[in-house]
Amino acid sequence: MSIRLSKIMQRIRPSATVSITAKALKLRESGRDIISLSAGEPDFDTPDHIKAAAIAAIQSGKTKYTPVDGTHALKDAVVRKFADDNGLTFRPDQVLITSGAKQACFNACQALLQTGDEAIVPAPYWVSYPDMVRLAGAEPVIVQAQAQNDFLITPEQLSAAITPQTRLLILNSPNNPTGAVYPPDAIAVIGAVLEEHPKICVLSDEIYEHIRWDNQPHSSIAAVTPSIADRVVTINGLSKSFAMSGWRVGYAAGPTELIAAMTTLQSQSTTNACSISQAAATAALVGDHSFIEAMNTQFRSRHDSVHQRLNEISGISCVPGRGAFYLLPNIASAMAARGFDTDVSFCESLLDERGLALVPGSAFGAAGHLRISFAASQRTLDDAMARLAEFVSS
Ligand SMILES: Cc1ncc(COP(=O)(O)O)c(C=O)c1O
Fold first, then answer.
1. Does pLDDT of 17 surpass 90?
2. Which of 16, 36, 185, 220 could potentially form a cystine with 357 if both were Cys, beta carbons 3.0 to 4.6 Å apart?
3. What structural domains and CATH numbers belong to the chain?
4. How far, in Å, from the CA of 175 to the mean position of ligand 1?
């Protein structure tokens, strides 16, 4: 019997990063020596004091439903975090706790977009944004950020993409997959464009906020351009900065009306983020943050070595990143030299021939590139770069 699936399913695809990670795992299970630099999560363990808070939550019976929008303790911690780190003032009713930042982005798209709307998505983008926009019935309008502009979109590009249908701009800094970080002045000029377009909201995904080496303060557009703050939803989470990807906790803060709509949606879908994970997230936000600096030091040193090795490979060039844990080298010349038409076939052969799993740039709106996650040990990264160099020169 064939099952009729809904039309909306024809508009979306499985996440490319999840697919390639699964294929690599399968090959490894079959006994092959596989290196996977495809996953988007820190290779560090969750710090002990956070784990201890989760164990205490279990032992003290915090194992029931929580309010849909999150526990009071975690929401208070999020309110304090925004005030202390970002200069943003929110009341608790302007905060929603979600099962990961991904759910916060999804809820925001569902609450803001409908058929006939357009959402501007700067590319290279995190794989999920265009499909989240499509799932809400709207159309993603891709604006291509250029490598020579450090992968930042310009105000001119933004202005040119705006139409009467535009309802949302999705900003992501530090960026997955480029590692680009918008400095405060680059955010300010984007804010200035949006001041002229009062119908456009902003989804500011700041999940890599703490993973940076740009020596500038992190800039949230709601703080840099306060005149548009009443139409910005700022999204963040624990997965990356606190090495808590499996715990599934994220959060959104913004206008009361929007947060209320996102909360209603959540009440009819997942209810609340896991009670135990919320207790752990509270401990993470209010507790000691010194390990973040230690993690950053590692990420920076790995970034520097992978960036250098990539640029030593003939046919590959890579702009440096300033945050997150990814690099997006341009492989157009290497592809041509080896006779590959697409980055997808390049990545498939790389996995088959050399056992190295990387994600094709086309999944991120960056055809002719590769995304490399350097959330792996230096030894693994050295081995991976050697395999890539051998593959390209073979
Ligand atoms: C830019 C970006 N936003 C959001 C997420 C989702 O994070 P979470 O684990 O909190 O759902 C990711 C995860 O890869 C990401 O790269």
1. no
2. 36
3. 7-45+290-393 (3.90.1150.10), 59-286 (3.40.640.10)
4. 10
